[in-house]
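This week, study the protein below.
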Amino acid sequence: MSTRYLQNIVKPRAIFVWDASPTLSQEATRWLSWFDATPPNAPVQHITGDLPMYQSEIHSQSPLLFIMASPDDLLGCCRTACAKQWPLIVLPKLTLARTAKRIRMGLAELKHGFTSRIIGPDTAALVLPHHGLQTPTPAWPQVQLPLVKAGHIAVLAQSPSITACIRDWVSGRQVGLSHLICVGGSSDVNIADLVDTLIQDPYCRALVIQMDRLRLPARFISALRSCTRQKPVMVLHTGRVRDFQTEQDPEDDTFLDRELLYQAAITRSGASTLNTLDDLFQGLESLTKRRVHDGHRLLILGAGDGLEALAADHLYEAFEGSAQFTIRKEPRWFEAPEDFPMDQETLKELRSEADGVLIPIVAEHLSIDGDLHYGAWASKFAAFEQALNRPLYLAAPGM
């Protein structure tokens, strides 16, 4: 998989807005006003008239070129930018209509004759909060949404409308993201390329992906498999109804039900499957609250009632046998909060076994004399975590 020039997304050093179509000069002005109001960390330059030849010593080593062109001019302008060797080109969505198929096919052909990389067409958002870069929303300045906070979740999407929903939701809920990138028509750069780029990105600790079609499923699954070994990944696959799988004819004998293949492949790659947009929002919220620990050793500490085995099975399957974890069964500790150990000898022994501790527990074990005393147990677990000096994760199925 090629990630050539995609490091420019990870840390852009210069942003160029090329006003390529006179009919869209007003839109280019709106973009420049947006960047004046919300300046990114990298300098922004406005290019009018002819596009100059790219020169790294003048235009920086990691530039992003946004082309403001009408649908009729888009292919020609993009070809010009490729011929003048601009490394990374972004084609934002400037109209409601989807870019025509002939234009998308023409853009896809450009990658065979040039080294430039193209994101788009119909890129509805390129949001990089850690670098201060957020492309304007379609309704700005009439409708002003809060900026997306910097966080550690990357969202990659194909659908412009779903991207807009996600951006609206995370802005309102103050959920932080490391990246929000809509690839749109994916004429060149696709989600698999971006997954490979973000695997080593220090700001990205988890990925949420929305996709509806894949031209190269094998590349996507390979990228997912590599990423899930290091970071949690959630995938929302839309367009699952056979009659709306527009690339093929459902009446054809050779019709390929992509949904069955995609779901099986996503599951085998180790990613979690999402079914609705609500699931995606809940996933984002869960990942925002998710805690991480240094190191790779996990101790599963339980009462010996079977939940430890269930957790171990899930970890073993998710990490294809490479997860480093141990199981310790201590039923006496779960008889009452005061029975949980606080002596230095036991704590030192537990520290030597793990970098993090998972406690799967059922609600019945939280009862004292027939009454549920969650507060007492919560206080004990908090004190235990502090004394242990290791992150403590609680899982209480059924509560």
Summary: The chain is about 35% helix and 20% strand. The chain has a mean pLDDT of 83.
